[in-house]
UniProtKB/TrEMBL annotation, chains A, B:
A GO term, aspect molecular function: oxidoreductase activity
Domain GFO/IDH/MocA-like oxidoreductase: 112-242
Name of the protein: Glucose-fructose oxidoreductase domain-containing protein 2
Keyword annotations of the record: Extracellular matrix, Oxidoreductase, Secreted, Signal
């Protein structure tokens, strides 16, 4: 992300790394004047006005809430738990003058921007079904880390599924009312010498979302397919369909014999997430340029971005899918900020 | 099917049509000496030794049971109900010297024959997930008929899903223990002048089968995609995957960077069902030639074919999926021939 920000003219002032060595190495490689292994040093840095949070999910909430409290704008990845997502929304509501957006770059991918526009123009007629498939290799880090642990925000559903759930809501303008899901961890052990650590995070997820208005979404994620890179979203309506494959968009109205290529993005091997990130940073810059006062970004938010409220919705759906996986039943999606048990997840989420 | 049988040297002696005119037209077109609109006339015809039942599902059981009772060999499509499937199994058990097989031609498609062989040879390692997708245009007949009615054996789940459920069991050598499903009828009305008749048969189905041994199958059927013809089955295991797209077979072991084409069938636009039917009829002929006494076919059955017992299993799974669609819960699959309520489905299944 740093090179993308720099390319768009954002001066990247400070970088955080897990260790001082990692931070210094990143700073040197990316030409960043300040590096640290303490997140507070970044947040308190006087030249830092926008904080991009790309840390392990269990740290996300704490950094996001603190950054807003210090008066910094925030782009954040999904937090680890529903409690965290609630606290982030509370902070975002408390500092409405600051920018607080989720970093789901898929919303900015040109294929999905055009898909949303065409859907709105009636290309598909009445929307019936959305199908999403993401297949790829293992999401596990080489050495043991948060990605291995379900409760720390690891797993295909939390990391990739979150982006798809957000995207489907963004594209269709609808939210899930009830969900059903099935999660599996097929690769249950790993480690450099094999069999050392157990994995609790899912590597396969199959879930259905019933959206308001009767639209059905079906999503399949499988990260046991090394050497594959399938990223496909299909919207089917009464009079046509739109299909995004990777960074390309295809369409077929009911009257057509064959698909038409609607957008060839020429990504040259760059996947949808990276390509989307590129567009997101460009939008950030445009949003930035459109304003005289840098600190009032929030008054002209990056209109396509997901808000922290959207992040709470996504986390609520993710939790409902996990609940459905345990109960075997359809679970209701009720987005609420109150009534969160303050002791919930204490063991896994120490302050 | 008649031209395929004739091409393989089977003399087709009699044909049934819904009306005498239709029967005569078929007989004339296909060069068949005898035609009738009464099914009994075919069954009792002295030159008929093998009866291929391709009638509307509500007639299937009656014809199949009667044909076996008269001493004729039978190839049958899926019956309309579980009660019917039970009665067919009872008849097949009562006449073990006669051939009684289900007409699911997908089992005979060369791509699936090779897929089953490679799976058995360990191409995929430990099997984890099967994904099946069938997308196409409407299954409804032009004018109102059984295909419009769920209780008469219409709908994507019953007609196409049955073949997929049978195929997945055949390929993996496993059976579904529990199932979950969601059915929809998006096109709810139809007719030559529009809006005349209501449709109860599903045009969208999304279901999951938990197979013994922990294998997960996920199937999506969507018949609201005119101008599309997707027929894809993917088996994913610990060390590789096999993918049948239409009549072609692809594979990728975990060590490979790209997919390999394992079988290019050169179907020239012929879909998997028709191509499979071709192979099935060829197998029938080979099975036929391997025997001196035509009446003892059952002693050398067409080994790949689905038995009526397999048909009962498939119907049991279909019923469990329909039940799950109503209850929203995972439903157990318990194949049993006894304890069928004799009054069940009486309204929809008059003798």
């Amino acid at each position: 992300m740093v090179p993308l920000l720099q390319k768009e003219g954002f001066p990247v002032q400070a970088v955080w790394g897990r260790t001082q060595e990692e931070a210094e190495s990143l700073a040197s490689e990316l030409d960043i004047p300040f590096s640290t292994s303490k997140t507070d040093d970044v947040l308190l840095h006087p030249e830092v006005h926008l904080v991009c949070i790309l840390t392990p999910p269990p740290h996300t909430r704490q950094i996001a809430v603190k950054a807003l409290g210090i008066g910094k704008n925030v782009i954040s990845e999904q937090a680890a738990t529903l409690t965290d997502a609630c606290k982030m929304v509370t902070a975002a509501r408390y500092y409405p003058q600051l920018m607080s957006i989720m970093g789901n770059s898929l919303r900015f991918l040109p294929a999905f921007v055009q898909m949303k526009r065409l859907l709105g123009e009636g290309y598909c007629g009445n929307l019936q079904v959305c199908e999403a498939r993401v297949y790829g290799g293992s999401l596990l880090s080489q050495s043991y880390g948060w990605a291995w642990e379900e409760l720390m925000g690891g797993g295909g559903l939390h990391t990739v599924g979150s982006c798809i759930i957000d995207l489907l809501s963004h594209l269709t303008g609808r939210r899930a009312v009830r969900v059903h899901g099935m999660l599996r961890t097929f690769v249950r052990q790993g480690g450099p010498a094999g069999g050392i650590r157990s994995v609790t995070a899912d590597d396969y997820a199959c879930f259905q979302l019933l959206m308001n208005g009767g639209v059905v979404c079906s999503v399949t994620l499988n990260f046991n397919l090394p050497g594959t890179d399938v990223h496909e979203i299909m919207l089917v309506g009464s009079s046509g369909r739109l299909i995004a494959r990777g960074t390309e968009l295809y369409g077929q109205r009911a009257s057509m014999q064959v698909e038409e290529l609607l957008l060839s993005d020429g990504g040259e091997g760059v996947g949808p997430s990276v390509r989307g990130l590129n567009s997101m940073v460009t939008q950030l810059r445009l949003s930035f340029q459109a304003q005289e006062d840098r600190r009032s970004w929030a008054r002209h938010p990056v209109s396509m971005a997901a808000s922290f409220e959207d992040g709470l919705y996504v986390q609520t759906v993710v939790d409902a899918i996990k609940r459905s996986n345990r109960t075997g039943e359809w679970e209701s999606v009720e987005v609420k900020i109150q009534d969160i048990d303050p002791n919930h997840n204490h063991r896994t989420l120490p302050n």
